[in-house]
Write a structure and sequence with these properties.
Blueprint lengths: L1 H11 L3 H18 L2 H10 L12 H10 L1
Helix pairs in contact: 1-2, 2-3, 2-4
Length: 68
C-alpha cells in the first residue's frame, strides 16, 4: 500500500516516470501476494496517467495493469 501512496505523491508532483515505476512495483507485488485492495488502488491511479504515455514506464505500467 505504501508504494501506491508513493506513486500517488509522484503523480501530484508531475513526476510521471517515477509514479509509473512505483505503481508498477506496487501492482507486481500486490499480484504476487494476492492483495486485491492494493491492486484496486493502483488501478484507481491509472486514469491520471492519460496523456503521459511518453513518460518512461507508463506504457509498461498500463500493459501490466491490463494483464492483471
Amino acid at each position: 500500500m505504501f508504494l501506491t501512496y508513493g506513486a500517488d505523491a509522484y503523480l501530484r508532483d508531475g513526476e510521471y516516470d517515477r509514479a509509473a515505476t512505483t505503481a508498477a512495483k506496487a501492482l507486481t507485488m500486490a499480484n504476487h501476494i494476492g492483495a486485491p485492495r492494493c491492486v484496486e488502488l493502483v488501478h484507481g491511479l491509472l486514469p491520471r496517467f492519460r496523456g503521459h504515455d511518453s513518460a518512461e514506464g507508463v506504457g509498461e505500467l498500463l500493459d501490466l495493469a491490463r494483464a492483471s
